[in-house]
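User: Sequence recovery, please. Input:
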């Protein structure tokens, strides 16, 4: 998909998608695994990583 490592990091690293409202949130994966980050739109803590195309 992406040829450059910098572009891959910008598009995929630390981006999570809310399972309820499908909005994207950029947050460290450690905070997601600990349950300390939440969606800005619906305040849900159910996040999944962005899928690679």
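Assistant: Recovered sequence (53 residues):
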């Amino acid at each position: 998909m992406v040829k450059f490592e910098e572009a891959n990091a910008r598009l995929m690293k630390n981006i999570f998608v809310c399972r309820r409202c499908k909005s994207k949130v950029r947050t460290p994966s450690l905070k997601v695994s600990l349950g300390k980050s939440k969606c800005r739109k619906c305040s849900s803590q159910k996040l999944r990583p962005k899928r690679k195309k």
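The chain has one domain: 5-49.
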